[in-house]
Amino acid sequence: xxxxxxxxxxxxxxxxxxxxxxxxxxxxxxxxxxxxxxxxxxxxxxxxxxxxxxxxxxxxxxxxxxxxxxxxxxxxxxxxxxxxxxxxxxxxxxxxxxxxxxxxxxxxxxxxxxxxxxxxxxxxxxxxxxxxxxxxxxxxxxxxxxxxxxxxxxxxxxxxxxxxxxxxxxxxxxxxxxxxxxxxxxxxxxxxxxxxxxxxxxxxxxxxxxxxxxxxxxxxxxxxxxxxxxxxxxxxxxxxxxxxxxxxxxxxxxxxxxxxxxxxxxxxxxxxxxxxxxxxxxxxxxxxxxxxxxxxxxxxxxxxxxxxxxxxxxxxxxxxxxxxxxxxxxxxxxxxxxxxxxx
Length: 343
Known about the structure:
Elements: H1 3-9, H2 14-21, H3 25-33, H4 40-52, H5 59-66, E1 71-76, H6 83-97, E2 101-106, H7 111-124, E3 127-131, H8 137-146, E4 149-152, E5 161-164, H9 166-179, E6 184-188, H10 195-211, E7 214-218, H11 228-237, E8 242-245, H12 248-260, E9 270-272, E10 289-291, H13 294-309, E11 320-323, E12 326-328
Parallel strand pairs: 1-2, 1-3, 3-4, 4-5, 5-11, 6-7, 6-8, 8-9
Antiparallel strand pairs: 10-12
Helix pairs in contact: 2-3, 2-4, 6-13, 9-10, 11-12
Keywords: DNA-binding, Transcription, Transcription regulation
Protein name: LacI family DNA-binding transcriptional regulator
GO molecular function, one term: DNA binding
């Protein structure tokens, strides 16, 4: 293959343009990225040659010269968890509409992976969206000081935050169970590193005290269906007649284990999940759960991040957005067994 044929087969570079125009590569770079810095005759010559060669500017090179990459990193603790599907869909749609590329990273519920990813993404993205971050307040503060960032379901004073009001719906769940005669309720907690699990338990604990309900907490449990068997066994030992799980995955795993043990739901015990993931209404029985505008949370997070990146949008960027939630009542909750009802 001749040198000329090889040149035709590969993508043209600014070096090729420079050789044909008889100028330095730096002049070509300026003519294509900052045309006002090159005299008109030279610029027109370079542009004509670039068109003849079908030259396509490198996105990466443009990013290096402008300081922007055109990409936003979205970090989630577990990409297989259906809860994050809608967040990812929401961020993807909103970023695409704004002309950005989404870089999706699964941090595997691991703090060290999340920290290392944040460090790397500072070089390859214009901003970061952290969903359900497992980092400490100090770690988040440091990350926010180094790169534009928005968090979802993890409040921090150092970065804009989108919160799903699941604690408020946990109170709704407790009120629902109380109305069915349940006097002993167990909260099945999520990972210790989850900021949300502590907020949810506090809401349940305070609401239970107001209603005179005995509330206990077990866990922590990984937010997976495989955790449901151990969670169900432990929950039954508490003597409670109703269980509120950290998320739907744990609750679905509990339903399967209770069925194995011959415990009827909701005749013997009631179960409430959280997130209203796809399939929660297909369970046996269909799962009572907390529903949230998850996709909208992703869209809102992107809007808040873009406001940081582009101050010309006007107005003061929002620091906090709280998304409403509600209890979706299905067939996994029912009246407390007669023997467990308060006299």
